């Protein structure tokens, strides 16, 4: 394996991991408020097709990414209305949202299947790009690859160092106690779900405009479900999401390179490697039940009605 191949694997790992980081961060903040959203896959698909259509029609990829983000927020608001205001079952509603997003994106995007747009271009960082082996891979990426890492740090800071972050977590632990103290439980949960929708929509937009600049039905290929699993893998800690996402991205990059090199292994087996790796990791960490119990918000998935 030569230096160029190593650089390519690192670069592809970062690009493959980016949509997972974005979607997982959104889901983490949502779950920290006590709301479980299983509709990430559907929101990503809606973001992917909305961003792709906007870019195709308007010719501006950054506006397309913004539309993808807004479309994720719109779907998230519907979900929030159902599970926060009406107190619908979060698991059933999330599954319905995922199915709805898949069907809606397929219907709206039917005439765009196979069409392409100009890919989101990389932004080189001077000097750092010239570092041997790692420079080209790490510092010649598109803006969302950089932004995903920055967002991890911002979410960590928000949860650990700000009053708003502590309020969010206290509501996730006990909305009843938080409500008794006068904290705005509904408002915080709405904002958390909106942030989750924005990140899922942006992750979908990244897939259709940067990672593979075309539209295909169900192009997320289960990444929304992987993003939810990564939150558990990270035990609800944003910094650990990077590790899980890069693990998945690394395996994805390796299997793509093995396919390109025509390695004598079934392409179906190679394509399944990232998902098998994710399942294996989840099985391994499930043995440490104490760590998971310490991380999971106590009121996750439980409906709440204010007594005020």
UniProtKB/TrEMBL annotation:
Domain of life: Bacteria
GO cellular component: plasma membrane
Keyword Lyase among record annotations: no
UniProt-listed CDD domains: TM_PBP1_transp_TpRbsC_like
Annotated GO MF terms: transmembrane transporter activity
Pfam families reported for this sequence: BPD_transp_2
Membrane topology recorded in Swiss-Prot or TrEMBL: Multi-pass membrane protein
Annotated compartments: Cell membrane
Transmembrane regions: 35-55, 61-84, 91-110, 143-159, 190-209, 215-234, 241-261, 267-285
Keywords: Cell membrane, Membrane, Transmembrane, Transmembrane helix
PANTHER family: ABC TRANSPORTER PERMEASE PROTEIN (PTHR43370:SF2), SUGAR ABC TRANSPORTER INTEGRAL MEMBRANE PROTEIN-RELATED (PTHR43370)
This protein's name: ABC transporter permease
């Amino acid at each position: 394996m030569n230096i160029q191949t190593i650089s390519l694997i690192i670069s592809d790992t970062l690009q493959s991991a980016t949509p997972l980081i974005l979607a997982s961060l959104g889901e983490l903040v949502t779950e920290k408020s006590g709301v479980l959203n299983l509709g990430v896959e559907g929101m990503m698909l809606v973001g992917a097709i909305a961003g792709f259509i906007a870019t195709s029609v308007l010719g501006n990829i950054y506006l397309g990414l913004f539309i993808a983000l807004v479309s994720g927020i719109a779907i998230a608001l519907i979900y929030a209305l159902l599970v926060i205001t009406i107190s619908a079952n979060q698991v059933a509603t999330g599954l319905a949202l995922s199915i709805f997003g898949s069907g809606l994106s397929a219907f709206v995007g039917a005439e765009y299947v196979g069409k392409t747009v100009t890919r989101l271009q990389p932004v080189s960082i001077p000097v750092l790009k010239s570092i041997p082996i790692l420079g080209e891979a790490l510092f010649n990426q598109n803006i969302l690859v950089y932004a995903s890492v920055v967002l991890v740090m911002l979410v960590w800071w928000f949860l650990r160092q700000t009053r708003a972050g502590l309020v969010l977590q206290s509501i996730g632990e006990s909305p009843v106690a938080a409500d008794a103290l006068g904290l705005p439980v509904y408002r915080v949960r709405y904002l958390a779900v909106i942030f989750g929708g924005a990140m899922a929509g942006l992750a979908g937009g990244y897939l259709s405009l940067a990672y593979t600049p075309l539209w295909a039905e169900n192009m997320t290929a289960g990444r929304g479900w992987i993003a939810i699993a990564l939150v558990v893998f990270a035990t609800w800690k944003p910094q650990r999401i990077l590790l899980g996402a890069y693990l998945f991205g690394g395996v994805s990059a390796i299997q793509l390179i093995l396919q390109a090199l025509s390695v004598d292994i079934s392409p179906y087996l190679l394509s399944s490697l990232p998902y098998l790796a994710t399942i294996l990791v989840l099985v391994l960490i499930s043995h440490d039940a104490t760590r998971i119990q310490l991380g999971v918000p106590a009121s996750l998935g439980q409906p709440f009605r204010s007594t005020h």
